């Protein structure tokens, strides 16, 4: 049985944490402006081109703050970031499955908050481009494009894409055209069949024959191995399946989200912030991944809204414990650091961005607190 929260988890630390986020972002936005931060190096966020997959998280964070503070500075920067993504569409070749991450937290967020018609139009165009990546034989959304000439990864699908599906559900809801939602549901069903194991652990990459749709293998990706349990992959699955249930109401997706949640929570260390992989051999590095914790906390808060009784209270309490630990044990408040949350880990197998703040970890940390405080609907 899930451990119930003590009354301390209802304390006013959430508002204190939110206020510190707002104050810090007000300062860091002066340097970052309408550019696209990714990982913090030596206390400063590195800036990536607008086609990079994390391009939506900084403006998404600004929209979270604007919704609460109504500070025009946050809105202006977020709108400028969104406008720069128009060129990414025109360049086309760098677009991949992360279209959902990019336009949900820019155009969909702005449309939900302001009703702007140009934001709606941009998001619908993005949804069409994402839907076009659907492989009808394998019933999956293709992940990446070839990274170099002659490479063929047209049959690759990854667990991260569960978080891109809400863009398709949103497109169906605003157009009345169910085709987008059909694609989202089909991809989620494929994830249910091929990615989520019976024990709730999750694969990162599944490889299909792009012509026949048959599964041909697995790849470890950003996890330790193909047979391990990459914690951020579990977080993507937990939150993504909960969102799929919210949007489509398929009980199988709710069961999958809860199965992953049970595995995730049972695998946490004492401070409730996960290691980068839940199945590591003794000699492997035991880096934390605060971003996986923040993502999972958001998923748990959503699950808490769709179940009842002790299950609901248990998920909400677990999410609060995780966010509280991120705030008190990993928060970068009293140091020369632009990131909000320390100890994010991006890609250990490639040695990239290990034990540093990550912009998506910052975003989900802020989203989780915003949900605890009841600030408004999800951008997803």
Task: Give me the secondary-structure topology.
Layout: H1 13-32, E1 36-41, E2 44-48, H2 57-69, H3 72-91, H4 99-114, H5 117-131, E3 134-135, E4 140-141, E5 156-158, H6 165-175, H7 179-194, E6 205-208, E7 215-219, H8 231-248, H9 251-266, H10 290-306, H11 309-329, E8 344-347, E9 352-356, H12 359-372
Antiparallel strand pairs: 1-2, 3-4, 5-6, 6-7, 8-9
Helix-strand category: mainly alpha
- Please count the helical segments: 12
Structure summary, number of beta strands: 9
Low-confidence stretches: 1-9
Query: Under CATH, the topology is which?
Result: Glycosyltransferase
Identify the overall geometry.
globular
Question: So, CATH architecture?
Answer: Alpha/alpha barrel
Helix content: 40-55%
> What would you call the quaternary organization?
single chain
CA-atom Rg in angstroms: 19 Å
The biggest beta sheet is recorded as: 3 strands, antiparallel
